[in-house]
Design a protein that fits this description.
InterPro entries: HTH_LacI, LacI/GalR-like_sensor, Lambda_DNA-bd_dom_sf, Peripla_BP_I. The chain is of the alpha/beta class. Helices cover about 45% and strands about 15% of the residues. The chain has helices spanning about 5-15, 20-25, 35-45, 50-60, 75-90, 105-115, 130-140, 165-175, 200-210, 230-235, 250-264, and strands at about 65-70, 95-100, 120-125, 145-150, 160, 180-190, 220-225, 245-250.
């Protein structure tokens, strides 16, 4: 019966010490690239693998990234966020854990539990706000928080975002240039007290219509709670007069409506 290879077996094969083998896996920055490659080659030849739990104990890292999503990962936005992060983190040896955040309570629960468990090396928050009191404890534990298109960069260790309001102003300009004068904006009716970056789009489109030559344009704001969008579709086709252009907050609204309207 073949025994399972050990750290000492890898060390003998690579002609290094056992502590060097350990550092090559847990603290690679302390080992030269040439030595680490020799250790990895020896480990591969022996079919040796390092336990993730033992690496976590030695390094103090969980090798896990917490991704907080307020929308399902199956949506275009959630899916692309996960895919982009996974392309970077997976080759580096990190797993991504998704935490659904539907309201202020679930957000607060996450930030209450995470510091005690210490089961994530970083937290990534796309599109919604975080409370400074909730993240203060994480900062004392040196757990970075990254914001992707969040409402502001407050409380964030690193932040990247687009200007939602400016984007909608450009859309207004384009629609008016096409001679649309009756524009309806369809958005989700917020079900929680989470402040989402999408709220800035409403301000952008309203601000765009108040500016310059667009003041004569009629604008309707339509909030929907209907996931199937059937009631939204019925309301839109029964508007008098009907809108000449429909602008949607997100693809999850735009695509189903577009398919229904093409059949109309």
């Amino acid at each position: 019966m073949t025994s399972t290879p050990s750290v000492h077996d890898v060390a003998i094969r690579a002609n290094v010490s056992a502590s060097t083998v350990s550092r090559a896996f847990t603290r690679p920055e302390l080992v030269s690239e040439k030595t680490r490659n020799r250790v990895l080659q020896a480990a591969s030849e022996l079919n040796f693998s390092v336990s993730r739990s033992s690496m976590a104990l030695k390094s103090g890292q969980s090798f896990r990234i917490a991704l907080l999503l307020s929308t399902p990962v199956t949506t275009w936005f959630g899916g692309n966020i996960f895919e982009g992060l996974d392309m970077v983190f997976h080759p580096a040896g990190y797993d991504i854990s998704i935490y659904p955040i539907n309201n202020v309570k679930s957000r607060a629960d996450f930030f209450d539990v995470l510091p005690a468990r210490r089961n994530a090396d970083a937290v990534i928050v796309p599109s919604f706000n975080v409370d400074s009191r909730e993240v203060a404890r994480l900062k004392t534990m040196n757990v970075p928080i990254a914001g992707i298109n969040t409402v502001s960069n407050e409380n964030m260790s690193v932040w990247a975002a687009i200007d939602d309001a400016h984007g909608l102003r450009l859309i207004v300009r384009h629609l008016v240039s096409l001679r649309h004068r009756r524009i309806t904006y369809v958005c989700r009716d917020p079900q929680s007290l989470l402040t989402l970056s999408a709220a800035q789009r409403i301000r952008g489109i309203q601000g765009g219509l108040r500016a310059g030559p667009y003041q004569s344009t009629t604008f309707w704001l339509f909030r929907t709670e209907d996931d199937s969008l059937q009631s939204t579709f019925n309301a839109l086709i029964n508007m008098q007069p009907m809108p000449t252009a429909i602008c949607c907050q997100e693809d999850g609204i735009a695509i189903p409506l577009m398919c229904r309207l093409r059949e109309f």
